[in-house]
Automatic annotation (TrEMBL):
Its cofactor is L-ascorbate. It comes from Heracleum sosnowskyi. InterPro entries: Oxoglu/Fe-dep_dioxygenase_dom (IPR005123), Pro_4_hyd_alph (IPR006620). The keyword Oxidoreductase applies. Residues 196-297 form the Fe2OG dioxygenase domain. This is 2-oxoglutarate and Fe(II)-dependent oxygenase superfamily protein.
Length: 322
């Protein structure tokens, strides 16, 4: 448990401006020896703003994103076409479907647990869905390898993963967000714009011996984050949480009651504020793959520009008020 991680300067994780062979029976879904198909680390490669070469680099980048998407659209053959349409009863566990259909706050509260304030946990995906998405990701990596395509990273901190919209899953994920995540974030996180979520960035991340082991301490570029473990078999990989902070207090140490480590379970989702500081401990063996949705509210962002000084949701501001 890296308590000392709270002493490190925290990173703010940004969406990459990407805008953008599996074996179903036995054996790992993601081939452990898959050659590297992910982008190189490109931290600090951005030229200074205002420099003429920065405009050139930007237009090169936009061009390569366009080509990347075009190449996927024209040549990627999905393995599970049924993943591209949201089939609620086929994908989601009955308890979640019932709670959302009931349309009451009590119904939703019955299926969640909140082991530490602001961490909402509930069962979400059926094992069949997790398996299909893992296989689709494996298939996508295989295609990238065969076509010599470099998979674009999902965010600035992490390169082992893929953006779900790039695979063609934006409609399915959009429906999931609107019908399931929005009702929940409306109940649990209205004070950070959880009730006005209007866009999302969805992606897959992968950890294991041949990829990354852990994810550094950070906050997300989101108002509310949904994080669902898809599998497979692994040890470690706990999500560590260290309190919610506004910009001013981002690096203020955690109190004991803000420290919580959550052991990830396939099919189970966690929902938390984007400003809830967190990271992932080392996946010490096996492979772990998670699906993330960074949910955003343009209204909340607009209003935050004239932000009141002490938002109620920041652990330090709340302490200072009392
Ligand atoms: O690996 C995890 O479970 C955490 C991922 C995460 O925090 C993120 O991608 O923002
Ligand atoms: Fe995160």
């Amino acid at each position: 448990m890296p308590l000392n991680s709270t002493n490190k300067k925290i990173k703010i994780e940004y969406e990459e401006e990407n805008a953008s062979s599996s074996n179903p029976r036995g054996g790992p879904v993601i081939p452990p020896m898959m050659p590297n198909v992910f982008e190189d680390n490109k931290d600090d490669v951005k030229p200074p703003v205002g420099n003429s070469s920065s405009a050139d680099a930007e237009s090169e980048r936009v061009k390569s994103i366009r080509e990347y998407k075009q190449r996927i659209r024209s040549s990627y053959q999905p393995m599970h076409r049924e993943l591209f349409e949201m089939n609620f009863t086929g994908f989601l566990v009955p308890s979640l479907l019932e709670a959302i259909n009931e349309s009451t706050e009590n119904g939703v509260r019955r299926i969640i647990s909140e082991p530490t304030p602001g961490l909402i946990i509930f069962d979400m995906f059926k094992p069949e869905f997790c398996q299909m998405l893992l296989e689709e990701f494996g298939n996508f990596k295989k295609w990238a390898w065969e076509t010599k395509t470099i998979i674009m990273r999902p965010n600035t901190m992490y390169r082992y993963g893929a953006v779900l919209a790039d695979l063609g899953m934006e409609t399915m994920i959009g429906k999931l967000m609107k019908d399931f995540i929005l009702p929940m974030s409306t109940i649990f996180f209205p004070e950070v714009g959880g009730d006005t979520i209007d866009s999302y960035h969805g992606f897959i991340v992968e950890y294991g011996a041949d990829t990354a082991h852990h994810l550094d301490f950070h906050v997300d570029d989101s108002e509310v984050t949904l994080n669902v473990c898809l599998g497979e078999k692994f040890y470690g990989g706990e999500l560590f949480l260290r309190g919610v902070r506004c910009v001013k207090h981002l690096n203020v140490d955690s109190e004991l009651k803000e420290i919580f480590d959550y052991s990830q379970v396939p099919g189970r989702a966690v929902l938390h504020r984007g400003r809830h500081r967190h990271g992932a401990l080392s996946t010490t063996s096996g492979h772990r793959v998670n699906m993330l949705l960074w949910c955003k509210s343009s209204i909340f962002r607009e209003m935050s520009k004239e932000e009141q000084n002490s938002p109620s949701w920041c652990g330090v501001c709340r302490r200072e008020e009392n």
